[in-house]
Amino acid sequence: VQLQASGGGLVQPGGSLRLSCAASGRLFTINAIGWYRQAPGKQRELIASISSGGSTYHAGSVKGRFAISRDDAKNTVYLQMNSLKPEDTAVYYCNARTENTGYWGQGTLVTVSS
């Protein structure tokens, strides 16, 4: 499984961004895809995930502001981020979980600043 994350950038507080995670390879082995983020000096944390069955999870810190979705025709998972705050600044990673292991995409930097 290979993952390609994109869509990061600089945005003002209150703005929006949409991250994309394009998957390729043995997609039928994927149980779920998640978005993680890692802010400077902090541990990487799970903020949203979507299962192969379509069930979604959003961490409390982003619930109501971020939304994970997927387009099966494009083999892509999205993270729509609205009402961004400076504390959302981090490198965002997507991860695909299979029965035996996980695969990481490269990170995409999101900076929320005026």
Would you mind describing this structure in some detail?
The protein is 0% helix and 54% strand. The chain has strands at 2-6, 9-11, 17-24, 32-38, 45-51, 56-58, 66-71, 76-81, 90-97, 102-104, 108-112.
Summarize the amount of helix as a percent range: under 10%
Largest sheet: 7 strands, mixed
Structural class computed from helices and strand pairing:
mainly beta
Mean pLDDT over the full residue set: 96
Extended strand count: 11
The helix/strand series, from N terminus to C terminus, equals: EEEEEEEEEEE
Low-pLDDT sequence parts: none
The Rg value, from CA coordinates, equals 13 Å
Shape: globular
Distance between the termini: 37 Å
Counted by DSSP, the helix tally is: 0
Primary descriptors:
single chain; about 110 residues; mainly beta; seven-stranded mixed beta sheet; four-stranded antiparallel beta sheet
Write the layout of secondary structure elements.
Blueprint: E1 2-6, E2 9-11, E3 17-24, E4 32-38, E5 45-51, E6 56-58, E7 66-71, E8 76-81, E9 90-97, E10 102-104, E11 108-112
Parallel strand pairs: 2-11
Antiparallel strand pairs: 1-3, 3-8, 4-5, 4-9, 5-6, 7-8, 9-10, 9-11
